[in-house]
Amino acid sequence: MVDQRLSTASIGDFATWEPVLRLLVAEQAKGHVARSVRVAGRIGRGGWSLALTRRMPPPGRAAQVEDMREELDAVERVQGALAAAGVDDVSFTAEIHPTGKTVLRLLGPSPAVEPGIGTPHPGALILVDGALPEPWRRLPEPAPGAAPAPSADLELLERTLRERLPHAIGATEEQISAAESRLGVTLPDELKALYRVTRARWEDLGDDYEAAISECEAVGCELFDLDSLYVADAASRDCRWEFAATKAVVTRPDAMVQGLVGSPGWIAFGDNGGGDRLAVDLTPGPRGHTGQVIMLSHEESIGAELVAHSLTDMVLGRFCAEPGRPREQRPPAVARVNIASLTSIEAAAHPGLEALSIGVWDAAPLSLAPVTGLPRLRTLTAYPGTLADPLEIAELMGLEFLELGPEEWRILLDAGAVPRSLSAAAIEVHGDQDPLPIVAIANEILALWDRPQIIQTFLEGDLGPLA
Predict the structure, then answer these.
(1) How far is CA 436 from CA 39, 427, 446, 454, in A?
(2) Which residue from 150, 163, 230 is spatially nearest to 190, judged by alpha carbons?
(3) Quick one: pLDDT band at residue 214, thresholds 50, 70, 90?
(4) Does residue 233 register a pLDDT over 90?
(5) pLDDT 10s digits, 303-342
(6) CB–CB of 41/51 below 8 Å?
(7) How far apart are CA 191 and CA 202, in angstroms?
(8) What pairs with residue 402 in β-bridges?
(9) Closest Cα to residue 263, out of 320, 302, 224, 314?
């Protein structure tokens, strides 16, 4: 099978790939010109992964673009062809004979396969179209007793902002209503009061950078204009399946903020200047206040931190945080068994376990019997060679994500024991393994759900003798 986008565009022309292949061959063929060389990599429109050793700059000088000019030119040639073909990312493997005869295989893409990270091997396999990991499906729990904090003071908030921003242009009621219609949510009164003082448009400042800084200092953040407000729901926090599936939503009974990925009640209105988003929280935790200010870290994909009990508090500089808690007594929903963490499956097993990750292990392989029958277990990831009997996976009835090594997948496939409850899967690959057998296993898994295959496109060429 051939992907027509790759075969009919310049991306399917061997000459497009020749500079990249020559660089890889020069790296891999050192001292091995008497035998064939296999090279592999991945190139996407936004980045690439190639096994190349970059030249070190002279002592006392930082690395510069010109130090990797040859690599950049070669990659950009492929990236241009990808753009012309309408393809975001493609991995490849090539076998180059000593004579220079080359067989190049382009692998994919497939709409059912996420790109690998720094590797030509496939990433997560999406077995159910549109499927999302459980934390990304979780909606906020109702908090019927929640109310605005006593510190929320519309008159004080507006007076303080007008004193600090005497020349600001405020939003009209029509503009505020338009924002509410676009978002599908009624903005809290404090946020409306803020925008009645300043609509936070850059053009209102006359491109005056100092005035922009003053506005940030007056409000306490880089304030979005009304057109840039957005609902920080789960969809706004993208995360790869293999990472998202190993997370869990946990909200303590005394929490002020729910431990969600996102919420239809989190209205993002600003930035702290470092990429972390500030939002008013209309779906607080059991002990929280409606309209409290929270921060969503750009380094995290789940949860938020309390910043202030109200927008009034934030503007007045009265910041706060969740109160200290006693050490958690309940076993965690996510457990990791490896040489540095838990040392047995038994230690990880409990009724609330949602995700089990088995990592590097230097003892006898482990049995999954202790977690069989657990009602909430939905994710299992296991480092290659750590399972005593991979067929025990068939007894885990509620799995939605499974990540195993190639040999473990082979056992499940041959036995017809791949869990049909899965929504996504991944193949754990370590080292410089040939991508072709991994792609073959991936396609077998995809076929069980009748999902689009990773298609190979074959190109032939001649790089000349390797010697």
Answers:
(1) 12, 13, 15, 10
(2) 150
(3) confident
(4) yes
(5) 999 999 999 999 999 999 877 665 556 789 999 999 999 9
(6) yes
(7) 19
(8) 380, 425
(9) 302
Strand order in the sheet with 456-462: 47-50, 37-44, 89-96, 101-107, 456-462
What one-letter code names the amino acid at 404? Answer: L
Roughly how many angstroms between the first and final C-alpha of the chain, as a whole number? Answer: 34
Q: Please give the C-alpha separations between residue 159 and each of 150, 153, 224, 309, 353, in angstroms, as whole numbers.
A: 18, 10, 20, 19, 50
Nearest one of 389, 394, 437 to 419, comparing CA atoms = 394
What residue has token string 């009265």? 318
Which residues have a Cβ under 8 Å from the Cβ of 71 and sit 6 or more positions away? Answer: 23, 50, 52, 54
Q: Is 215 helix (H, G, I), strand (E, B) or coil?
A: helix
Point out the least confidently predicted range of 205-209, 228-232, 276-280, 353-357. 205-209
What digits encode the pLDDT tens for the residues 179-188?
999 999 999 9
Strand runs labelled E in 127-273:
222-223, 230-231, 266-271
Per-residue b or e along 103-133, where b marks 16 or more CB atoms closer than 10 Å to that residue's CB: ebbbbbbbebbbbbeebbbbbbbbbeeeebb
Tokens (6 digits) for 310: 């109200």
Indicate the residue type of 252.
R
Query: In terms of Cα–Cα distance, which of 135, 133, 139 is closest to 402?
Result: 133
Worst-scoring range by mean pLDDT, 20-29, 216-225, 258-267?
Answer: 20-29
Compute how many other C-beta atoms are within 10 angstroms of the C-beta atom of residue 93. 19
pLDDT single digits (tens) 406-434: 999 999 999 999 999 999 999 999 878 89
> Which amino acid does the sequence have at 29?
A
Q: Is the Cα dihedral 310, 313, 319, 325 positive or negative?
A: negative
Planar angle of CA 319, 271, 146, nearest 5 degrees: 50
Residues 6+ apart with CB under 8 A from 151: 309, 310, 312, 313, 318
pLDDT tens digits, one per residue of 4-14:
556 557 888 99
One-letter amino acid at 16 equals: T
